[in-house]
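Homework help board

Subject: predicted structure for assignment chain

Our instructor gave us this sequence and asked us to write out the predicted structure in token form, then describe one feature. I got the tokens but I'm not sure how to describe them. Can anyone check?
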Amino acid sequence: MTRKLILDLDTGIDDTLAIAYALGSPDAELIGITGTYGNVTVAQGVRNALAVTELFGHPEIKVYRGVDHPIAADKANGGDGTFTVSRGSAFIHGANGIGEVGIPDPTREGETESSIDYIIDAAETYGKDLTLVPTGAMTTIAAVLEREPRVKDMVGGIVMMGGALTVPGNVNAWTEANIAQDPEAADRIFRSGAHVTMIGLDVTMQTLLTKRETARWRETGTPAGRFLADMTDYYIGAYAVTAPGMGGCGLHDPLAVAVALDPTLVTTLPINLKVDLDGPTRGRTIGDYDRLNTAEKTVDAAVGVDVPRFLDEFTTRVGAVAAGGCSYVFVNSVGG
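My token output:
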């Protein structure tokens, strides 16, 4: 059985690896990509998503432009409606988001249809067969649920990469980067009643990729293999500075895609979560005190991961894309 996926990406390095994982998975149908901000701007992320899908041999995958700034930056809330990539993100992912590796510009443009309308249309079309996988700022998914709250009950779930429940954050001691981009959006999703699986730093920092694996991609001699190796080696180099001693890079976004396809890869804690929006702990993902005793738990927070099994699947599936042959061959699309 295959699962239909929409990836909501700020297409940097690990987002690109998530695309490759989906394309190399026989149990996935990547029906579309929507672009958010975080590692890069929406414009750069859409360009990257278009370019890498073409490089991986899938120019038929449609890419939609998402909301380009956080809720708190909206002019209606007193902000100026802009987003600027942080120095940290630019260092970790490179100024172009893909490790400063140059690849050909895409031959096609992003879709003109709103990503919000596209996701709602897809939810109505595919229902429970569809899983939404946001791996950047949660603004577009929050906007979808605000526009059409029924989406939370239509789709098979939301598997998000973000948050930190039992470990420190990677922005500060309590905040993970994707949540930090738009705490209000993440909080609205947690409180929406949608079923969310949170793939946070608790598990993603246990899934380390090393240069042994990237060397195998380079040895394929294909443009995709060389690109994946060069891009990911840049990422590993950034980790050597920001997290010395780890010996590799965390596979944050690919793990979220993997769990969307196979939830048994992780063990989870059922809990109703919120995001702190005020004070010194702004951006912290934590149990919602007001809903701790509510019988229905809408969030499954991943607290354990089958590292060997995931890494085996990751290297196999991404390796297939690097070699130029992927298991995924059929793409459906709606809208646009």
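Reply (TA_rk): Your tokens look well-formed. For the description, you could write something like this. The CA atoms of residues 171 and 325 lie 37 Å apart. That's the kind of observation they're looking for.
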